[in-house]
Each structure stands twice: as structure tokens, then as C-alpha cells.
Amino acid sequence: MSFARPSPEPFHFRSALPDPRLRFLASVVAFCQHRGLRTPATFLRHFPPADLAAALDSAPELRALLMERATGMRREIAIHKSPASVVSDLRLGLEHGQIDPTQLTELIHPDRLLAAVEPFRVWRFISEDKFWLLDARDGARYQQAREVVSHALQRALAEGLVGTIDVICALTSGPVDHRLPRELLAGGTEALATHVPLAVLWRVVIVDLVARPAGWATAPRAAIDPSRTPRYLRRPRSDRPLPDDDVAIDAVIDQLVAEAAISPV
């Protein structure tokens, strides 16, 4: 995994995109970059100069600023360059190590990126390294990953892509919020990201309730025999009666971890 140093500045980001799914995606990609989970070099590997030029196609002044920072060309001249010429200059500069990737990526607002490329490519950029498989033994990298999962969950809730009951049902396969520790529910997304394994939260909530319905993730896992479908992939029925016996959250999570051990997304 290629991680960078997190930014010391507070995270301030607001997407103006009309689609709440894209606002979610824009915020998560911005947070991943802010917390160092995705590096400028990785960004440019996923989104080469042609994509950058497309993202700035309707913003010639910003495109000229990018050329000024990247190549030293005066903005008054750069603003008259065609998009094809910009792509060629950027590609040559990057190939010969004359351009700092950071100077390019910090000018590309996620909203502009999502207006220029398919959302699934942005999702792939976010999820490529499978950071949700990290654990506490990975030290600072785990902390970065935990912050990203917590932020993604918070934004999914804020954008109305999932509800609190959706999260509870996904984690327990039923409306059993009364059986979860009060402090875990009251603690919000940070508490969940602290106490529930990242792999479970990411796959069960973010992937299965947000990314798959939006068409960003891979096709759903095959489940020819419904009885063999992992519990967390089954949509709970609202009229399902609560079981008589109480189920400890630790036992639920242990089972979820075992079921989540199938091929990672």
C-alpha cells in the first residue's frame, strides 16, 4: 500500500454535485487524499493528463494556472493552449520528471473529476489498496484507514444513502438495535469504526449498501443457493420477528468476520 503523510490542516470539503451518491464519492476521495490514503502519484496513475484536461475543459483559467504551476509557462500564454496541447505538455513533463504530481492533483477538485470521468473509476481509485484489511498491528496506517471508513459511513448517513436502521440491520441481519450496546449506538460512526472490524463495516455497509447499488463495485457475489448466502448479504425483512434469546454483539461480529472472509471486493 502506498500511503502519504496526512495533511495537518483541518478537513473542509463541500461538494456541489446534485446527485447525493456523487457527493458521497467526492467527499470520500477528497478525504482519502487529505488523510494520505491516496498519493498524488497514485492519482495520476488512475487519472492521466487526458483526464485532467477533461476535468478542466470548462475552466480555461484554471487549466492555465495548472500549466503555469506545472511547467512555468506564463498564464497569459497557457490560457490559449488547446486541450490536446495541454495533455501533450503534461504527459512529457511527467514522463521526464519535470512536473511535481502534487502541483497537478491539488488543483483538481473532486467535483470536476467526477464530471469528467466515470464514477466507478473514482471508486476504483479509492478502494484499490483494500485498506479496510488493515488492523491495529499496522499502526499509523490503520489509524488512517479507520478515519476513512468512519468518514465514509458518516457521509453515507448524511447524504441519505443509508439510514441508521440500515446499518444496524446490515451488521446484525435483523432489526435488533436494542441488543447493541448503548454506547456503541450513541458513539456514532467513530465508535463503530473503533469497535467493529473495518473489513466488516466497509464490505457490509459501504460496499453492499452504497457502492453496489450505485453500480461502482464489481458484480454481486454469486449465490446460486440462497441458503448459502452470507447473512449480511441478505436483506432483512421488516416483519421478521425478533429472536427470543439475546445475542451478544461480540458473537455477531465474530460471525460477520467469518462470513466476510470470502473473496475481498
Structural class: mainly alpha
Low-confidence stretches: 174-179, 219-257, 259-265
- What is the mean pLDDT? 75
Q: Span between N and C termini?
A: 16 Å
Radius of gyration: 21 Å
CA-based shape: elongated
Q: Could you estimate the helical fraction of the residues in percent?
A: 55-70%
Number of domains as seen in the coordinates: 2
Q: How large is the count of helical segments?
A: 15
Number of strands: 0
Order of helices and strands: HHHHHHHHHHHHHHH
Question: How would you characterize the largest beta sheet?
Answer: none
| Proportion of strand residues | under 5%
Structural features, described:
Helix content is 56%, strand content 0%. With 265 residues, the chain is mainly alpha-helical. The chain folds into two domains: 80 residues; 129 residues, no CATH class. The two termini are 16 Å apart. The longest helix is centred in the middle third of the chain and has 19 residues. It is elongated. Helix 1 runs parallel beside helix 9, helix 4 packs parallel to helix 6 and helix 11 crosses helix 14.
Key structural traits:
single chain, 265 residues, mainly alpha, 2 domains, 56% helix, 0% strand, elongated, disordered C terminus
